[in-house]
Amino acid sequence: MSDSKNISLEDRFQEKIDNNIQIEPKDWMPEGYRKTLIRQISQHAHSEIVGMLPEGNWISRAPSLRRKMGLLAKVQDEAGHGLYLYGAAETLGADRASLIDDLHSGKAKYSSIFNYPTLTWADIGAIGWLVDGAAIMNQVPLCSCSYGPYARAMVRVCKEESFHQRQGFEIMMALCNGSPEQKELAQDALNRWWWPSLMMFGPNDSESKHSAQSMKWKIKRFSNDELRQRFVDMSVPQAKILGITIPDADLKWNEETKQHDYGKIDWEEFWNVVKGNGPCNKQRLKTRNKAHDQGKWVREAATAYAEKRRQRNANRAKTA
Amino acid sequence: MSNVKWPLFEVFIRSKLAHVHAGSLHAADLDMAMTNARDVYTRRNEGVSIWVIPSDQIFAWNFDGETILAERVYEHPQITRKSEEQKEAEQWEVFFRTKQGLSHKHVGSISMNTASKVIAEAIQIYGDSLKITNVWVVPSAKINASDPAESESFYDPAEDKLFRHATFYDLPDEVKHM
Lengths: 320, 178
Known about the structure:
By secondary structure, chain A is mostly helical. Chain A has helices at residues 2-18, 31-56, 65-90, 96-105, 121-142, 148-176, 180-199, 211-216, 224-242, 267-277, 281-294, 296-319, and strands spanning 252-254, 259-261. The mean pLDDT of chain B is 89.
């Protein structure tokens, strides 16, 4: 009896999704949907928070006040994005403190792109242009994903993300139109960030295990390869405007498919970084834990102040 | 280990006519939640008024045709299930989600002595003119509202932060869609 009731709940749930009716927090949902969403949303949130680190590295060394303000505002936005996403995960019953513990213990994953170092100021331009560009490519379709709070968080994020990419491209423009040394800096940054940016879209569709179910549940709207192709096609003319060369000898326009063919991705590097052996994995985790530990006094002070205020108000109420 | 468990708050922003749910945040208390809400949700002057409400003070009901039984807003470990007490009547604020995909929006106030009665009355009053998929109600006294008298100083910091906007960045025409 209960089995047939569950089947009809599943069917009704899938019907909503097929008809583009969004799922909200108090709606019935399969346990798998809830779990997958918590994992996907929290990974996204962790990526925003860890993503603050490679860029935060250059705030104190930004070459001008304009650049410093832009970078500070961008990094601040990333913190905000993490917060919107943790909030969305909490509507599914996830406890934020546990999610953060999982990040700090190394149990939870975040986007592997943030395990690469920012070696020069030009890296900040490349990140804004390519990494945020790739993120936008992924996030815009999610604005119509099936889970309401996640979709609405994505709308909020996308509104703010546009300035991020523009800020990065403006930096690249300044460098590419500057001295030969500055242009060389920009080319070098492109050389190092291009392939990792392509890897941001994840494994080839044939290797992607969870994709089919996520597509059926509409928490993934386009395949990894589809988004990656769009990103390549978008970025090629942008690199031409900058006057720098994408480090791919096999990159060429295909007149038949009206797309750019591109070279083979080094999947060994990708899996190695995902497994924890990228250039900065250990450093990122150490920095996050250190920030959390060193910030403990702030949390304790806020809690103590809240308690003091509560007591003061309670005493006032008594004597009133 | 995260040893601090701050309460969860829901944030509502009014940009034009009504307060709309923007998201949630954790803070040590209601006052700090208000300052955080300003910094998190109105960095680009998205609103003129902010309401911050402890999540566990909100009663919810999902429109699934069954008896109205006010429940907690999310199934969350920090939000304890409350039983409704019979009290003196007090003013409650009512929020509706009028379509799956949209945020909750403030519709008005009702005076009753339990959440379930408020919900039932709200559906009675508004149910004909508005499609409703979910209702949130909260005692008005539990809402922390930003002080309109302090609006100028409260939102002032965001006013001149033009570098937060896409238009601040000068790009050639060929990439103007970026």
